[in-house]
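Aggregate trends can hide what the representation actually does to any particular protein. The sequence in question and its structure tokens are set out directly beneath this paragraph.
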Amino acid sequence: MKLMLVWLLNAVALLLVPFVVPGVHIDTLYSALIAVVILGLVNSVIRPLFVLLTLPVTLLTLGLFLFVINALMFWFAGDILSGFRVDGFVAALFGSIVYSLASWLFSWLLQGPKPPR
């Protein structure tokens, strides 16, 4: 049940991105739900390969190249889906940052307060 709630909250987070980033377009809630699944698959299968292959550049830039990798994965997910579109790299960069922050905020709110030890 919690997995379904996290999936729905991530879709809501993705639906918020076009209101902040003008180059990101999502047609329907169904498109957002499918896009969240595709983003999860891309981030769990393709992203580790990119991180491994670009490790020297990532170390040279002190980890800032990871933003570029995240933007490329966001842009790629927008390219393979019809209801989710990203217009360019800059939109993908800011869209991935906004989506990550919104997703993090929703998961933090879902966890609730920590009990004192």
Q: What stands out?
A: Helices lie at 2-20, 29-53, 55-60, 65-80, 89-111. DSSP finds five helices and two strands in the chain. The beta strands are 24-26, 84-86.
